[in-house]
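Hi support team,

I submitted a single chain yesterday and got back a structure, but I'm not sure I'm reading the token output correctly. Could someone confirm the output below corresponds to the sequence I sent? I've pasted both exactly as they appear in my results page.

Thanks,
R.
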Amino acid sequence: MKAVIVGCGRVGAALADRLARTGHDVTILDTSTRAFERLPADFAGQAVRGNGIDEDVLRRAGLAGADVFVALTEGDNRNVLMAQLARETFAVPRVIAKVNDPVRAEAYAALGLATLGRTTILRDAILDYLGEPVDGVRGVQPPTGHDHPLEARPAPESPALATGARPGPATPPGEV
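Hi R., thanks for writing in. Yes, this is the structure output for that exact sequence:
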């Protein structure tokens, strides 16, 4: 499985390391080079510095052809935007966006995005520990809207690619 993760915080770093250790092809992306210090010295994946809302950066990170995309930054709006890019522009079949506001997470799930929020996860974990019934979905809330793809949709062809023109600015030297 090829996975691209944006956000090398504690969760992103732990997820990237776990997937890489189990043999998956993993790329983790963050705007801060220091964030990669959370990765173990023997991290078997690739770390890319860049902004995950930039299509060229996502392309350089290998999002085209990825099986999974996970947006784990602290910004709900950024995560949703990146998830939409992954799903609609790059046709990634499994996309998850961390959305901490439970009301917004439910709304985005209804629009076709799988969401994950610590508020809901922690609430459900506490209720479960107390022996109380937990309603609904635990963990990742799958897309509930009629617009979500059950299979990967082919990426739309860019007019620039069709004419052979190179899209976007050139990659600055020294960046992956």
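A quick pointer for reading it: The radius of gyration is 17 Å. Let us know if anything else looks off.

Best,
Support desk
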